[in-house]
Design a protein that fits this description.
The chain is α/β, with parallel strands linked by helices and 395 residues long. The strands form three sheets. It has a five-stranded parallel sheet with strand order 2-1-3-4-5, sandwiched between helices. The longest helix has 19 residues.
């Protein structure tokens, strides 16, 4: 009987009928992703290309527990209907084990219920919307970023500590992304929000410009600006504020808007003094020049992505998220069922990641899906982001 089984296996292998399998006969780990490789947020595509290179490196080193990773990342142009189309293809045709690191609130929302109904892990969503951390109603979805509300809290805490008499203006994208940031910001200001916030404006993600909103906010006499913006609107806001001669004493943008690729079109000089936050080491900051993990990252980039602009933090972000997923995959040992993948993702205990700032770790639990709950403020000096102050959290 054993001889017959061996003969059948040999025939199948010769005919290429054994499916996607590594050299040792173990099936590949198929990972799906959608990202905007085209459209207004195409700058984020470098995240996926870095992860693609990272998994190529892992495969070259023997894979994960003897299995090769097959990473399939598709363009959704940041369009929810396209996200649905591409995600269905990945799940139903490519038969991926999980979805990983797909970007956007509206785009992930379009496939949120579908993936949970199918019981396909939707891991480490690149959106800080609070809805991704809801294990009771959507147990198959986990966020991959600090919550937008938590980030808003951190900025408000800084305002209260350094400029308690601030006159604050808020510009926010009119969607869950914008609303979550503003909710956290106001929550941390508490009873003082009503008197400190002197103007608010919003814009639609489909709007051509935000010039009129900026003019209105400047006219309010505000000396602190919190701009909850994304993509091209980051560039428009920074450049627009400079063009109308407005010089807010404190000027905040979300972590997701802080990539150099969004600052450059606005003119780096115009971005000097901008404040954002991060939980990652800035790989181009001199203070990490001798850091072993940063050296490993730079060596990886030199070998696998030699033409990349290392000032673009989306590359290090892709590397960072890939190391987070690696922690989960390695913990799976030899059980790559969807149930076990989710179980391991929801039971991380003080995991250190190479590019996390010192003192920060990742912990999750069955009732706590937020992997990152700590942030540190950083300020743009015209060339790079420089961290300052203590580690802050949403407490």
């Amino acid at each position: 009987m054993k001889r017959a089984q061996f003969a059948l296996a040999a025939i199948l292998a010769a005919c290429g009928l054994t499916g996607a399998a590594a050299d040792n006969g173990k099936e590949d780990i198929k990972i799906g992703q959608t990202l905007p490789y085209s459209g207004p947020l195409s700058g984020f595509g470098t995240i996926g290309r870095t992860e693609e290179a990272f998994f190529a490196k892992i495969n070259a080193e023997g894979g994960i527990n003897g299995r090769k990773v097959k990473f399939i990342t598709l363009d959704d142009a940041y369009s929810p209907p396209k996200t649905v189309e591409q995600t269905r293809k990945l799940v139903e045709q490519d038969e991926v084990l999980m979805m990983f690191g797909s970007l956007g609130t509206a785009t992930n929302n379009a496939v949120h219920r579908y993936l949970n109904t199918k019981k396909v892990p939707q891991l480490f969503v690149l959106s800080g919307a609070t809805k991704w951390a809801d294990p009771q109603h959507y147990p198959w979805t986990m966020p991959g970023m600090a919550a937008y509300e938590s980030e808003g809290v951190v900025y408000a805490k800084h305002v209260l500590q350094t400029k308690p008499d601030a006159r604050i203006a808020i510009l926010a994208q009119n969607d869950d992304f914008g609303r979550d940031y503003v909710a956290g910001f106001k929550r941390a200001l508490g009873a003082r929000a009503a008197s400190m916030i002197v103007a608010e404006a919003s814009y639609e993600a489909t709007a051509p410009t935000i010039s009129s909103q900026l003019a209105t906010l400047k006219a309010s006499g505000a000396n602190v600006l919190f701009g909850v913006v994304l993509g091209k609107f980051t560039s428009q806001m920074i450049k627009g504020v400079a063009e109308i001669g407005w010089k807010p004493e404190l000027f905040f943008v979300p972590t997701s808007a802080s990539s150099i690729s969004f600052l450059e079109p606005a003119g780096l000089d115009n971005a000097v003094g901008l404040i954002s936050s991060s939980n990652q080491k800035d790989t181009m900051d001199a203070q990490w020049a001798d850091d072993a993990a940063v050296k490993d990252y730079l060596a990886f980039m030199k070998q696998y992505m030699p033409n990349a602009d290392l000032n673009n933090s989306n590359y290090s972000a892709g590397y960072h998220y890939a190391t987070l997923l690696m922690a989960v995959l390695r913990a799976c040992k030899d059980d790559f069922s969807r149930e076990n993948v989710l179980r391991q993702a929801a039971s991380l205990r003080e995991v250190s990641l190479p590019l996390l700032l010192p003192g920060m770790t990742v912990s999750t639990g069955p009732d706590d899906y937020l992997p990152f709950q700590q942030l540190r403020l950083r300020r743009f000096d015209g060339k790079s982001w420089v961290g300052f102050g203590d580690i802050l959290d949403d407490r």
